[in-house]
Recover the amino acids of this structure.
């Protein structure tokens, strides 16, 4: 694949979304479920129907004791 072809594919992906059919189906069904919910008087958001993939995980702060325990395990 040439550089120009790769750039064309990148541009296509930005415009149309992922190429994975499963992800596209999930996206479409979530959109439909949101529309149906809102038409019936519900207050659901689009993100309520999307599966949680763990991408937006809040970072956990470590306590000093946890850091010390981790370092002791690595030392040995």
């Amino acid at each position: 694949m040439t550089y120009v072809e790769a750039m064309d594919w990148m541009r296509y992906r930005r415009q149309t979304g992922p190429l994975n059919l499963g992800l596209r189906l999930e996206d479409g069904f979530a959109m439909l479920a949101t529309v149906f919910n809102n038409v019936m008087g519900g207050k659901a958001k689009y993100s309520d129907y999307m599966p949680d993939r763990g991408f937006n995980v809040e970072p956990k702060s470590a306590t000093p004791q946890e850091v010390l325990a981790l370092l002791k395990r690595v030392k040995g």
